[in-house]
Design a protein that fits this description.
21% strand, 2 domains, five-stranded antiparallel beta sheet, 7 strands, two-stranded antiparallel sheet, 38% helix, alpha+beta
């Protein structure tokens, strides 16, 4: 599974990247991209983006390919998807481990498997290019004397700060 930061500009870049690889009609490519992001139609994707531009979303390459084949009439069309930018390098792990509800670059809400509480983490920029994370919960397992609070809640890389905040909860 791939994960992309779904915003208007990133969606245009993704479509431009894929359009240059195969001779597929633009409208078919748009519909297939929407299916890859879990929407039934391009109109549904557009409606979601008008309400919520700028979240990480999983992308199902098989659903995308199936929709391209369905619309284009060809069975074997392959695309090379762009690599995730450096700042998004920890994102795919989140979707493998957790159930994100909201997932932006500076804010995530998710549920840990088997726990019904929604965890909220927010990043705040600090002077000098640093980022501090705030968590709504702390983890307390039966073998710990008390809840775990990381000794360092700041980092000079926003994505790594978010990664550390999530790991401070999910790795127990």
């Amino acid at each position: 599974m791939r994960v992309f930061y779904l915003s208007h500009s990133n969606l245009k870049s993704l479509k431009r990247s894929l359009a240059g690889q195969q001779d597929v009609r633009s409208s078919h490519l748009t519909e297939a991209i929407a299916r890859g992001f879990g929407f039934g139609t391009a109109a549904a994707l557009q409606a979601w983006m008008n309400d919520d531009d700028g979240q990480y979303r999983p992308f199902d390459q098989e659903a995308f390919s199936d929709r391209v084949s369905e619309l284009h009439g060809a069975s074997e069309i392959t695309f090379n998807f762009p690599e995730l930018p450096r700042e998004d390098r920890y994102v795919e792990d989140v979707f493998d481990q957790l159930h994100p509800i909201v997932f932006r670059k500076d804010h995530i809400q998710f549920q840990l498997p088997g726990i019904h509480e929604i965890v909220d983490i927010q990043l705040r920029p600090l002077p000098g290019g640093w980022f501090r994370f705030d968590r709504s919960h702390a983890i307390h397992t039966p073998v710990q004397a008390g809840p775990y609070y990381p000794s360092r809640d700041i980092d000079d890389d926003a994505s790594y700060a978010m990664h550390r905040a999530i790991e401070s909860l999910a790795s127990y």
